[in-house]
Amino acid sequence: MFIQRTLSGAILLAAAIFGMYMGGTVLACMLLAVAILSYRELMKAIHDETKEKHAKLIMTVGFCFVVLFYLAFIAESCFKWSMGKTAALCTVILFVPANMLFYVLRFPEIKLKEILKSIFSFVYGPVMLGFIYLTRVSGYGKYLVWLILICAWGCDTCAYCVGMLIGKKKIFPVLSPKKSLEGCIGGVVGTVIIGLLYGGFFLLKEYEIKNGFAVVAVICVIGAVAGMLGDLGASAIKREYGIKDYSKLIPGHGGVMDRFDSMIAIAPIVYVLSELLLKTRG
Prior knowledge:
Elements: H1 2-22, H2 24-46, H3 55-79, H4 84-105, H5 112-136, H6 141-166, H7 181-206, H8 212-241, H9 256-278
């Protein structure tokens, strides 16, 4: 199991590095695949298809909107379409009335909870993953996007190591029995150290940014905390619906949501903070 988990983790890391390095159409296409899988996993996790007979129909509509959302990014990067981000935003906005249309037309067969679950699955997975692309194409994006990876897997690795060495105080025993306060603190501190080293050698070496180290530290702290909350949130969903993993797609890890739960929460944070603190334009 350890070898299997390590090997699949290394492949995932290599794929993430490749996508972030290439950016543009390659990254958008890779994110589209991950987004489709994340939406499917979330919908299957929180829908009881034996009772909610319209789940498959609602999922089909969701898949169509996920594809449209990322096609806007692909068109922007591949064909230099200036309206790509606007089209993506319109897709998100139209997804709600599209679901409400089903609710109205098939009432009372379709229940409101089915519609709300679909909207949640669409926003929490595919839309939030889209901020990885938005970060990559923003000003300084070819350097900023790596902070998402550092905050996610850097924090996870540091938290695991510190927790194994000195972790004693369990803070979320129901959701994650192995998580300790010491591990969480170690994860945040480790993320900041890695982020500052990365920033000094790459981002801040390439660009002159006022208070650059402080900005990177803030992004890393908030990003690391968001990543841990994303991990715990995904675990809470699994506990509530009585599943061990979102799927068995990734050997040793589970599903896409099991492996990318932190990045899903971190990506919007890094994008928004970089826009606010660095005033990026791109």
